[in-house]
Amino acid sequence: MASDHSSLNSQTKFLHQNSDLEQQATLEVETKDFDYSKRSQWLRAAVLGANDGLVSTASLMMGVGAVKQDIKVMILTGFAGLVAGACSMAIGEFVSVYSQLDIEVAQLKRDKERGNERHREEDDNKEKESLPNPLQAAAASALAFSVGAMVPLLAASFIRDYKVRLGVVLGAVSFALLVFGWLGAVLGKAPALRSCVRVLVGGWLAMAITFGLTKLIGSSAL
Question: What span, in angstroms and rounded, lies between the C-alpha atoms of 36 and 187?
Fold first, then answer.
């Protein structure tokens, strides 16, 4: 009897171990098969907003810094760029996502009419949850833009020397561009190096063009 009991226990343990291994394998497969494209909508808005805030605000500050060395002028320009850009991003994203919402709602109504079926309440709730949220998208875009815009503002706020201030702003923005490029690549499972280089070079070009053209116009006394 004792041998039968120990044999039964060993079989039970073996079954539990097999069950745990199967659950672990299932979780690994689900993790590997995760569709990262589902992140594309909010990831696009977040990365675009933060990168926009960083590059546009830094470019404005560098452009003004090309003709005005006063720190107060540079900070006010950056702050105005932050507020205006965040509002613009929020409104643009709200209008865009609301248009998408109208299209998807109209399509759902057409599908119901064609099918001549009665949808259950659970199905209707799932469909509503899957629809885009304009207010959420607008808030996320404005917040992301503000986060990006704060980088050059904070970098320039406490440095009085003109040349040092420009150098610190350029360094801080370059570092932030690399971080945003890397973060976007990691979250979207894209090549990190290519993303970082693309974002960094794009930001440098925007700042250089703004600085150069503003300097040219300022020196020509137009």
Answer: 8
